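[stage:ingest] chain + small molecule (valine)
[stage:ingest] validated
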Amino acid sequence: IQDPSVYVTFALRDPAALGLPEGAAFLVWTTTPWTLPYNVGVALHPDFEYVAALDKDGRALILARSLLTEVLGEGAEVLKSFRGTELERVAYEPPYTEAYAAEGEGKPVWMSGLDTYVSDSDGTGIVHTAPAFGEDDMRLARNYGLPVIVGVDAEGKHRFGPWKGVFFRDANTDIVRDLRGRGVMWKEKN
Ligand code: VAL
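[stage:predict] done
[stage:export] tokens:
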């Protein structure tokens, strides 16, 4: 089975603090949409250069400069550039909060962290982090005190949301549709 690959936008809580316009967002790429309900953070590389550049709709999106042309195309206007270290602990609006509300752990901050495992060989240089589903994700959670939610049970079924009881990967189609409805789907490629 081929996992769908999606680009989603996580809007910054306080874009003005970085000198960016309203609506500015982290652009995040993932091949596991079914883990997005358990997102708690995004990982950036401390030494990469990042830019906030305008997409075709005039929205400011943050991504690694080395992937700018590949992702946004030729000639995208760059508003600002940042070193990864300048984008640490930047709070954003997560795509989903349901799992955390249900678990009663209080709300995570949903923020960026830095880790040198982040690559710019594909994606956007900004990695969706869901700690229960990856070793690197777990390390980021530990380093930044992000909560860990195990979103699927021992049988591999979702424990939360409208996908409760659905086998993890089988929820991909529904979650992709849901992301479109939430207005956070930027691009899908299969
Ligand atoms: N970080 C991974 C991804 O972006 C998973 C493990 C959540 O797909």
